[in-house]
Amino acid sequence: MTNHEHSTKNKSPLKFFIPVLLLVLIATSCNLPLGDTGNTPATEPVQAEEKDLPDSPAPPANTAPPDTLAPTPSPTATIEPTVTATSTPTPYVMVSGNTNCRYGPGSVYDWLHTYLAGDQALLVGKSADEAFWYTSDQNGILPDCWLWGKYATPVGDTALLPVFTPPPTPTPRPDFAVSYEGSDCGAGSCWLWFKIDNTGSIKWESVLVYAKNIVTSDVSVNVSNTFLAGIAGSDIAYIPAGDTGYTHSERLLNPSGNTIDVFVIACEKDDLTEICQARHLTVNP
Predict the structure, then answer these.
(1) Residue 98 within any structural domain of the chain
(2) Longest dimension (CA), the chain
(3) Do 204 and 126 fall into the same domain?
């Protein structure tokens, strides 16, 4: 064994104990109270004030069950006698002569179609004076229209038919066509006959026929407030819209084989007044 080893074994154990003891004392002193703070009594919780609570509802008294209601007797139905409705036949018209049926009650209105003699039409309404009937086609094909009552005889009760208000009168539309229908000659002179078809919406009441022989310069003028129902027929006061009338020139000397220049003027009123229109044609009798 060396001297160094010998000296280590002979060291005192207090050399190690004292530092340990100091450490224990220091650690213990950290837990000591710094001063006396006095005894503080523990705070008791404040008891909540007692509130008045509502009383609980009393239990319901024993209720006797309701009596069973007796059933209400049902009313006995009274058998009423059956009433049979009586239907009123729809009135109609019998047409005795070919008659134009128009958009309104009068010849100033546009033509829609024509009922022929023997036709029938249902009555839907009437004019206030019952001079015109508002009709409906029995087959539902032709449009409803106003029929003049002159050739239309009503059948059935027309008293309950409504009075219809006519549509507005259309703006007058004068028009006519003229055609040469031949001559009536005798004693070296001739009348020239003309047919006038009123294709407008107004009636014609007066007429002037001016005829000039281009070869001989012979001139004739005829002014009239009437027309004729046919060549050499009876007089008619005017030509209604959609209808036909006849007129003629005054006599011309020896017109046969010559060219005749003709003007026909038709007017709405007598004496060639109001609306007038003229047509020109050339004929060779």
Answers:
(1) yes
(2) 202
(3) no
Amino acid at 191: W
Contact indicator for 121, 95 with CB cutoff of 8 Å: yes
Q: Model-level pTM?
A: 0.46
Is 204 found in the same domain as 107? Answer: no
pLDDT tens-digit map of 77-92:
456 555 555 567 899 9
Cβ-in-10-Å burial (0-12, 13-18, 19+) of 284 comes to exposed
Tokens of 125: 């309404």
Tell me the CA distances in angstroms from 109 to 103, 112, 142, 144, 155, one per residue in order.
6, 9, 17, 14, 26
Does some domain include residue 132?
Answer: yes
pLDDT at 222: 97
Here the tokens at position 117 are 């003699």
Structure tokens at 55: 């009383």
Query: How far, in Å, are 10, 75, 85, 249 from residue 78 at the CA level?
Result: 144, 9, 21, 87
CA separation for the pair 147, 47 (Å, rounded):
110
Same domain for 183 and 241, yes or no, is yes
Q: Look up the domain containing 275 and give its range.
A: 176-283
The values of phi and psi at residue 165, to 5°, are: -85, 125
Residue 137 sits in a domain of what CATH number? 2.30.30.40
Contacts of 218 (CB under 8 A, 6+ apart): 212, 252, 253, 254, 255
**Distance between alpha carbon 44 and the CA centroid of its chain, in Å?**
93
Which one, of 262, 272, 280, lies nearest residue 204 by Cα? 272
Give me 145's structure tokens.
């229209």
